[in-house]
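Incident review: delayed structure delivery

Summary: a single-chain prediction request sat in the queue longer than the usual turnaround. Root cause was a stuck worker, restarted by the on-call engineer. No data loss occurred. The affected request and its eventual output are reproduced below so the record is complete for anyone auditing the incident later.

Affected input:
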Amino acid sequence: MVVFSICCMTFAAPMSYDGITVEVESLVGTGGNQTMIVVDWETGLTQSHAWLYKYDGAKVVADALNAVQSSVADFQWSQSAFVQYINYDEGSEYHHTINTGWLSFWNKGSEDWQWDNLGVYQQQLLNGGWSGIIADDYPDWGDVPPTIPVPEPAAVLLFVVGACIARRRRK
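Output delivered after worker restart:
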């Protein structure tokens, strides 16, 4: 049980969302609505990260980023009219915006990703949907949607084995 708990604290956990197994960093916020927030760095060993944002009422991407920043100590973003940077230190790798200001924003409901040029203060979140950010979308701004982080097969196997061991010990 201890090993299972440590694995879940240290690594993102797989979660089924909208019919896709997603590697979710953490759950942030509270409420009856939910949107999966994906930040795609386009570089590094772990290219994308996702957070499940829970909320009530109508919210925009800035609200979700503020919730992630409030809940995740190693996540920062420039809270200005024009997003300058998004940074995240996952421990084993530091992700940051290289080309300041070159971020593209995306939405996804039941259809494919759609590019959204409204920005973080106008882009409405879709309950049960996805909101994505490409952190360094230079020079091809808005041409490729975010990559959804999916767990490695070995990580899923460890998660399942840990869950089975925990369940067996409870009996």
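Verification: The first helix runs from residue 2 to 10.
Action items: add queue-age alerting; document worker restart procedure.
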